[in-house]
Amino acid sequence: MSTSHKLVCHKYDKNPSKGKIKLQTITNRKATYKTLATIDFKNWSDKKEIVLSGEPSFEKINQKIKEALLKAQTEKVYGCKIDKLIDYSEKRINSIYSYNTRRSKTNALNKLKEFRREFKKFQDINRDFTRSFYNYMQEHHAAGTAREYFVVIKYFIKEAVDEKVIEVEGDPFKNVTKRIPKTRYQVINDTELKKFLGHTFEDENRNLTQHSFKFMMFAAGMRISDFLHLTWNNFTEIHERMNIRFKMKKTGNIKETKLTLKALESLVPFLRNYNQFDLNTYHYYKKRAEKASNDLRAWRQESSQIDPDGFISVDLLNNYSQNAYIKFQEDSEKHSAKVKVKKDLDAKIETMEQLLPQVQQDVYKYLASSIKSIKTDYSTERVYPFLRGLKGNNLIRETRKRATKNNYFLNEMRKELNIKNPLSNHQARHVFAQRLFEAGANFHDISIELGHKSLAVTENYRKQISSEKSKDVVQIFTQSLDL
What we know:
Elements: E1 3-11, E2 18-27, E3 30-40, E4 44-45, E5 50-51, H1 58-74, H2 81-94, H3 99-118, H4 127-140, H5 143-162, H6 190-198, H7 204-218, H8 224-228, E6 235-238, E7 241-247, E8 254-258, H9 261-265, H10 268-271, H11 279-304, H12 322-377, H13 392-416, H14 427-438, H15 443-450, H16 455-465, H17 473-480
Antiparallel strand pairs: 1-2, 2-3, 4-5, 6-7, 7-8
Helix pairs in contact: 2-3, 2-5, 3-5, 4-5, 7-13, 7-14, 11-12
């Protein structure tokens, strides 16, 4: 659609000495006119498109027609409502903070532009247009992608109508699409998760990817976009507990999360290249904690196998033979020995239950002190090694590439370990959320930890990832009462 503008002066039919200055707009070979002023026809220069000095107030008239021409040349001319919608959508997309959200909506808008170029017959936004666009999407994309793009365009149409950018008659979406049930997210199960986290990968890329997944999972389901933008300055210590405080890339909100020992341990591959961290010292504290934990587990198992009440009382043996009574005395002596062993084990268990948290706290304190030392000297440096030293566009480009590479490595590791469920960066977030839902955690607390803007988003999450194990409110209420 080509559009041109020009200033012209037409003579009056009844009075040829007078003329009307008009703004001529030609669109698709059709001309429209807008009257701007009336002058003596002889005072108009058609070549220069100005009013000559012989006309009274010629300067004001020239200023007026010049502004009208400039406005027409800079103002976007729409051929139809669909063009208005496209222009409005572009402005909305440019105002979106998150790069990933902006990119996904841009992809949907590009499909609308592609459809517009191919089917120029549609001028209005009605049911025929929306049905044809949806069918076009289904022909060129998978069902899920087609529906995703259609939902984006549907959102822009509704927003444009609300802001009175365009007007539509009736509901252009009524019965356009059949309701497609949402597929549930496939979340990795406990067996597969333990297999993945327990495996040792020698390759540096895979090792870092594995520990990135682990950190995101234990750091309240952090998104990969937020993790890759972390610097050591995001780590803070509050009341002897390490926290991370960062600005979420998707929403722009500030998020603060407490870090557990598991979360800090997953950062070891990212710490070992710094002089402030000594791997041998860490292994010393780690082995102490592992030995204490293993001993406690073994003692509990051994103690549970000893039954101090597994013998017949003496009163019940009065009706039995002398041999049975002798047998009872022998068993009684063995029983007394086992009771003594159980008491010793219980004493050890009680002592170790008090000692284990202290030993684990030593590991936590060493990791926390190492992070604080690194933060002092390298506060603005990225946590992820491959992104250190990069700036500007190089950093933005490599950050996006790294997120894609991590997904690739996770998929390769999934195949290597024969894990059936999908494995991706975002799966860490799903694992975190699902375990909380299944444990019956407070719904509002889960929403805050996930960084959702509203509880409606969290509810949608729950529907998609909660399994049959999830506790309902009646079950939680029943367990809360001791009746």
